[in-house]
Specification:
The protein contains eleven helices and six strands. α3 links the parallel β3 and β4. The chain starts with a strand and ends with a helix. The relative contact order is 0.11.
Length: about 220
């Protein structure tokens, strides 16, 4: 994969570059500020990018806003946010276009390289990779969606794990259910959410986005 790494801390940025290259991928550009991030995304249009939220010049939300601007210009440009912070407003906006290819992980929740690269690959493929802590933060204080209210508790559990980017097999292991049982639950929740069968990956992304953007 061709990857852009945007991180203002030198040691962390250099460490990610070395890790990515050690796993056989190419870092086409790095960035240490918000403007540099946007320029790199515009110039390279990478297969996926890894972007911190808080970057110079103001150390607020420059990285996330650069990702939003780039996806506005290039819809679906894959972006994985990797941060210590959850910025609710811009995170919701990042998810709002419904095109997928987005992820949001907390640095403290990434425990090994396999987890990191699994998330990168899902996002690069147009899927989602959401940290459970980020999901909880985004859902805090939101009004319930009528379609989501129609889901059973088990369907809610399946959808929450789907939002993390887990496959049916992985969800089944987490919930101690068979893969076929999870498939039935996903089919049911797709129907209740009014999501037609136009490709399983796209349906999963649309279901996840409905879950993360539940507003009345």
């Amino acid at each position: 994969m061709r990857i852009v790494v945007a991180e203002d801390l030198y040691l962390l940025r250099d460490g990610m570059v070395r890790l990515i290259e050690a796993y056989g991928h190419q870092v086409v550009a790095t960035a240490a500020t918000g403007p540099e991030t946007l320029d790199a995304l515009r110039t390279w249009r990478p297969d996926v990018s890894v972007i911190d939220v808080r970057m110079p010049p103001n150390q607020s939300d420059e990285g996330l806003r650069a990702a939003l601007a780039a996806r506005t210009e290039t819809p679906g440009l894959p972006v994985l946010i990797l941060s210590q912070h959850v910025e609710q407003l811009y995170a919701r906006e990042l998810l709002a276009d419904g095109s997928g290819g987005v992820g949001y992980l907390l640095k403290e929740s990434v425990f090994d390289a396999d987890q990191f690269f699994s998330a990168l690959e899902r996002v690069a493929g147009g899927g989602t990779a959401m940290d459970p802590a980020v999901i909880a933060k985004l859902l805090a204080g939101t009004a319930p969606n009528r379609e989501l209210e129609g889901l059973t508790d088990r369907e809610h559990s399946v959808l929450a794990l789907m939002a993390e980017g887990l496959s049916n097999q992985a969800i089944g292991r987490r919930l101690f259910l068979s893969e076929s049982a999870i498939s039935k639950y996903t089919t049911s929740l797709f129907g209740k959410l009014g999501i037609s069968d136009d490709g399983d990956t796209n349906r999963r992304v649309r279901a996840v986005l409905a879950y993360l953007n539940q507003q009345s």
